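Quick one:
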Amino acid sequence: MTWEHLERGSSPVDWCEGNYLVSPDIAEFVNTISNVLFLLGPPFLIYLFKDYGKFIQPAIHLIWVLLIVVGLSSAYFHATLSLLGQLLDELTILWVFMATLSLFCPRRHFPRIFKRSRKRFCLSMTIFSIAATALSFCHPAINAFALMFLAIPATYLLYQELKIVQDQRVYRLGVRNTTILIMAIVCWINDRMFCDAWSSMNFPYLHGFWHILIFISAYPACVLFAYFFVNDERPESRPTLKYWPRNDFELGIPYVSINYDKKFDDPI
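Output:
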């Protein structure tokens, strides 16, 4: 990485929003500030998952911290349009996805070669992530398109779990999550592929809506896979999907509550 890659505008990617129209210091103003949910949401999720992290899997907090890094990296990229910012933005997305998959994918979905060993699965995902990180430097302009394909295995795994889940609240959250993901992808594609049309309507801000919708989709997906993980590997903890601030309001903030009356063994 040379110094020129730190310079503003060094990225080959420039989204639809006009540059430096609001502030002389921020290239894409709306695309920058629309990352605010990535900064405000995870600290609260760390609080809601404090018992889950204590009794089930401490690494759940790594996911929330990585989401903060995603928000910071994305804000830096859209503020500067530098190549370094672009790579940080894209690679943090890659790593948060791979970390969630490695830590919380139910073992029954592991390929047979791993013999249901999570250590082997995590090692292979780490190697894949390192290789993908190296390849991302080769053709940075196509990285964003490549990342979109991560939605395919994630949606497939979610579909497989929703087919067998018995808790209808979990099922409904999965359906809502998938619907919001589709809306987010539609915004991303329209901003990337049909910029002229949206600019002619004076609304070049769909990538900002992508940031908002993808967070609203991403964190419940992590919640769902955290639920599937404990339901699969620690069923004695009797996981329950709940909502804050009111448990009877399913459009609130979802989290996984566990029965920690029993003293479990050390976290997996």
